Structure formats: structure tokens, C-alpha cells
TrEMBL record:
It comes from the Bacteria. This is GNAT family N-acetyltransferase. InterPro entries: Acyl_CoA_acyltransferase, GNAT_dom. It holds the Pfam family Acetyltransf_10. Gene3D superfamilies: 3.40.630.30. Keywords: Transferase.
Amino acid sequence: MEWMYKRFDELTALELYQIIKARIDVFVVEQDCPYPELDNHDQAAVHLYLHHDKDIVAYARLLPPGSTYCQASIGRVLVHSNYRGGGYGKELLIRSIDYIINEWQEKEIKIQGQEYLRRFYGSFGFEEISDVYLEDGIPHVDMLLKK
């Protein structure tokens, strides 16, 4: 298994297909939530993922400031259902935060997290900055990390 950091134009067609498939499998199929998965933000992102054979084990989309928020952001965070419970989510968040702080020299990271993951994100220092609200029928909360 290998962690990869790639800009959109560095992804091969196969890698992009595997990433989109993983995102659709988790967010659309598993969570039974039809929403516009392709939102024109992938082109500005750094795609961080752990790859094993044909599977995307873990994935996050890192967006620079000004893409979706004033701050840098982490989104589309997932761990494939076959690999949950192995610590990949924690490592994914550590790597995501580290990249944004050290590579982009950013001091704030904003996320739109699913409500049931508030404690998970909070364990990395993210603080809630909104009330819980529905996004595509799923409870979410905005959170901010300041370094």
C-alpha cells in the first residue's frame, strides 16, 4: 500500500476512475444519498489517497483557500468499507492536515463534516463553527482548525 498525493492533472485515467468510483460507492450508494459528486472542484485539488491493488483504501480531497471556502479545506473524506477499523481514517486526517499546513503554509482548515463524525474531527483540533444542518439529507456541521 502506498499513500499518493496528486494534483488533478497528474492523475491517470485509471486513478481518476478509481477515486470517483470510491466516492460514489461511499457517498452515493452506501449512504443512499444522490448528490452532484462531480462539482468542478477536483481540478483545483490535491487528491490524497491510499491505494491497494484495485481499491482506494482511503481518500481525501484537499482544496486550497478560495476554492470552496476562504480557508483551505478537506473534503470527500472516506475509508473503503473493507478497510474500516484499521486506523486509515486517522492517518488520512493526519496526512491531510500536515500537507495543508506544511506544503501550503496555511493556518486554518475548514471542513463540512457529517454530524456523527464530530468527535473524530474534534480529536484533531477541529472546532464546531455552525449548528447542525442538513446537506443532501444528511446532518452536517462546519468545523475549523486553527494552527
